[in-house]
Amino acid sequence: MEKHVQTITIHGGKEDYRPVKSLHPPIYQTVSFEQRGEALITHRDTELKYSREENPTVMLLEKKIALLEEGEDALCFASGMSAISSTLIHFLGKGDKILVPYESYGTTQKLIKRLAEKFGIEPIFVFPDTEEVLKHLDKGVKLVFLETITNPTLKVFDVPRIAEACKEVGATFVVDNTFATPVLYKPLRDGASVVVHSLTKYMVGHADAVGGAVVADLETTKELWDWRNNLGGILAPFEAFLIDRGLKTLELRMRRHCENALKVARYLRNHPKVEEVLYPSLPESPYHDLAKKLFKDYCAGGVLSFKIKGGRNEVIKFLQNLKMIFTSPSFGAPETIASYPVVSAAKQIPPEIREKLGITENLVRLAVGLENAEDIIADLDQALAKI
Ligand SMILES: *Cc1c(COP(=O)(O)O)cnc(C)c1O
Fold first, then answer.
1. Ligand 1 pocket, CB under 6 A
2. Whose C-alpha lies nearest to ligand 1, atom 5?
3. What average pLDDT does this structure show over 379-383?
4. What is the pLDDT of residues 230-239, one digit of tens each?
5. Which residues pair with 283 in a beta bridge?
6. What domains are there in the chain, each with its CATH number?
7. Tell me, what's the pLDDT at 298?
8. Is residue 366 within 8 Å of residue 305, measured between CB atoms?
9. pLDDT top residue among 24 and 116
10. Which of 75, 116, 263, 266 is 20 to 30 A from 233, comparing alpha carbons?
11. How far apart are CA 246 and CA 211, in angstroms?
């Protein structure tokens, strides 16, 4: 990792911008920077002058994220949606076709529909399956947008194959790598053009800051830099500090999330009140071979879903009886979080499509946290016993 040359600098008065080697870089909680005719030039050849454009605390985080994803540069945004909306606005214009699976993050789908209505981009929504994506991918498609692992049914895309097909037809391939994180998978290595992130989840890791990032080549990030400046979506310095702090333990946390998720998945799949467990690291998963091919140590992350025998009543009873496990949307926190997709993340998918995707009335999503696996299992066990 590079030394923080410009970021480890504290203000010691007007004349004294002295580099000080503190263990952690300071938070540049400031709107502007002094211009003395020789303004500090950043690594992007821009002048450091105003925090809507650039801020050293944010820049430090961007360098780290670019290194983690093995991209040329990264830009951070106020949220994952700010990163995604800025990326789509940058790449797409009137009449451009975007291919997107209909099991994608709900707000991403809503955004694409609204961009379609207001600005005339043309979405093609497809079933979340590699073959389906490839079938609809032709020269008319400007951009493909998908998530490495879908939510909540944990389908895995063959990113290398789709990347190759995108290159053949000249489409830009944007991968939302929020679920996998660069610890488990690096889509740019396998030919994706752009990676986007919600930093709100595993990257910050403590569920205490909202943020987003885009990683791409220098030409893209340079143009996107202007969009970020014009749209005003840069990440705030304090949130950048929190996310930077979270990143220090990303690898350790992901390892633990993975170990715990696998233990919980194995417990659930043997439970008499559980119909099915969806988790790509399980040998019976249809995505197991792909997970093995793509993800470090075959690990598909900390989120799994399972179907309880019964329906809505059984699920609600189960959720209400959880003691330690928090019931909430989102994931990537130290705490285990359970959610009910038909009333949360997948609410806006029409019921008939939901059914086809496997988002059934008895499906529970579990974002397995960092607690002792035994404690998580004990809580699941007592709540399942009460159904
Ligand atoms: C949460 C999430 C987003 C949106 O990120 P925010 O930081 O909440 O704006 C986008 N994509 C995926 C896969 C997510 O899980």
1. 79-81, 105, 108, 147, 176, 178-179, 198, 200-201, 210, 212
2. 80
3. 98
4. 999 999 999 9
5. none
6. 70-247 (3.40.640.10), 250-385 (3.90.1150.10)
7. 80
8. yes
9. 116
10. 116
11. 12
